[in-house]
Amino acid sequence: MLTLSGEHIKLRALEPSDIDFLLAIENNEDLWHLSYTNQPFSRHILMKYIENANQDIYQAKQLRLVISDEKNTPLGLIDLYDFDFQNKRAGVGIIVDLNHRRKGYAIEALNLVCKYAFTRLELHQLFASINHGNESSKHLFEQAGFSQTSVKKEWNFIGGKFYDEYFYQKINYVH
């Protein structure tokens, strides 16, 4: 089972005991625009998701890891998605629970997943899509070495308005 350890956090696979945390994150309507969700998930559906979360990234084309502290308490989630082995790239998404923000967990998690993606998965690049107005995410990804490479104009329709989406990339030039 995959576990990546940092100085203050670890990234680990989803466990059945994470169900309440996952329900709270996935069913928080304030976050739905980040994942293009438009309806709540049932406990049953998310339990099935956890049961199948051990599927290999090469099969599932995604990997969701829990950001946890030394007591194994879930602090957030970090995902590799749209995994494309042929083109050696994947998207990165991250969410840290509101009660655990501004403590350095997000940058540590992002750096750990970048190292894993570039060394173990041998990816050439990671990318992230960040909504207009999400300055904390822009800052986080820039701090981790990502660069804004394009803007998707009026890409997302949120709350009756269209908003731009910023595309960030981190390219691994060491092979």
Task: Tell me what the structure shows.
By secondary structure, the chain is an alpha+beta fold. The chain has a single domain (3-171), classed as Aminopeptidase. 29% of the residues lie in helices and 35% in strands. The chain is built from six helices and eight strands. It has helices at residues 19-26, 32-35, 43-52, 57-60, 105-119, 135-143, and strands at residues 3-5, 10-12, 63-68, 74-84, 89-96, 125-131, 147-158, 161-171. An eight-stranded mixed sheet has the order 1-2-3-4-5-6-8-7. α1 packs across α3 (43-52). It is globular, with a radius of gyration of 16 Å. It starts with a strand and ends with a strand. The mean pLDDT is 88. GO terms for molecular function: acyltransferase activity, transferring groups other than amino-acyl groups. It holds the Pfam family Acetyltransf_3. This is GNAT family N-acetyltransferase. Residues 9-169 form the N-acetyltransferase domain. It comes from Psychroflexus maritimus.
Task: Summarize it.
The chain has 175 residues and is an alpha+beta fold. It has six helices and eight strands.
Topology:
Layout: E1 3-5, E2 10-12, H1 19-26, H2 32-35, H3 43-52, H4 57-60, E3 63-68, E4 74-84, E5 89-96, H5 105-119, E6 125-131, H6 135-143, E7 147-158, E8 161-171
Parallel strand pairs: 5-6
Antiparallel strand pairs: 1-2, 2-3, 3-4, 4-5, 6-8, 7-8
Number of continuous helical runs: 6
Main sheet: strands, sense, barrel: 8 strands, mixed
Q: Which topology does CATH recognise?
A: Aminopeptidase
Could you give the count of β-strands?
Answer: 8
**Order of helices and strands, N to C?**
EEHHHHEEEHEHEE
Report strand order across the widest sheet.
1-2-3-4-5-6-8-7
Tell me the span between the first and last alpha carbons.
26 Å
**What is the C-level CATH assignment?**
Alpha Beta
Q: Which band does the percent of strand residues land in?
A: 25-35%
- CATH architectural type: 3-Layer(aba) Sandwich
